[in-house]
Design a protein that fits this description.
The chain is of the alpha+beta class. It has one domain: Rossmann fold. About 30% of the residues lie in helices and about 30% in strands. It is built from 4 helices and 5 strands, in the order E-H-E-E-E-E-H-H-H. It has a 3-stranded mixed beta sheet with strand order 1-2-3. The protein has a two-stranded antiparallel ribbon with strand order 4-5. Strand 1, helix 1 and strand 2 form a beta-alpha-beta unit. It is extended and about 60 Å long. It starts with a strand and ends with a helix. This is SUMO-activating enzyme subunit 1.
C-alpha cells in the first residue's frame, strides 16, 4: 500500500491495518524543498551479496617473501538477512527526552521535527 497527501491519523490507521495483515506499507509527501518517506515492510527477509574476504593463515608473518592472498572480485557469497520494521505509530511516539534518544538525535535530520 502506498499513501501520499494523507493526514497523520489516516496514515497511522491504514498502517495499523497493513501491519496486522503483513502487507507492506509506504507513505510519503513533499512540501516544497522538504519531504518524508516511511516504509513498514513488517518482517522483511532479503539476500545480500558479499565479496569473499581471504582469511590470514595463522603463524604466517608479514615480510617481503610473504605472498599475500589475492581477492577475486567475482568470488562472492550470499548472506541471508532479516529486518523487522516498526509501525508508523511506534515511530512517531519516540520519547526524545531520554538518554538513549540523545545519540539518535544527532543522527536525525532537522526536517523530521519540521514535518512533525
Amino acid at each position: 500500500v502506498c499513501l501520499t497527501c494523507c493526514s497523520r491519523d489516516v496514515m497511522v490507521k491504514i498502517n495499523h491495518i497493513c501491519h496486522k495483515s503483513s502487507v507492506k506499507f509506504f507513505a510519503g509527501d513533499v512540501f516544497g524543498y522538504h519531504g518524508y518517506m516511511f516504509a513498514d515492510l513488517g518482517e522483511h527477509e532479503f539476500v545480500e551479496e558479499k565479496t569473499k574476504v581471504p582469511k590470514a593463515s595463522p603463524g604466517v608473518e608479514d615480510g617481503p617473501d610473504t605472498k599475500k592472498a589475492r581477492v577475486d572480485p567475482s568470488e562472492t557469497t550470499m548472506v541471508k538477512k532479516r529486518l523487522v520494521f516498526c509501525p508508523l505509530k511506534e515511530a512517531l511516539a519516540v520519547d526524545w527526552s531520554g538518554e538513549k534518544a540523545a545519540a539518535a538525535l544527532k543522527r536525525t535530520a532537522p526536517d523530521y521535527f519540521l514535518l512533525q
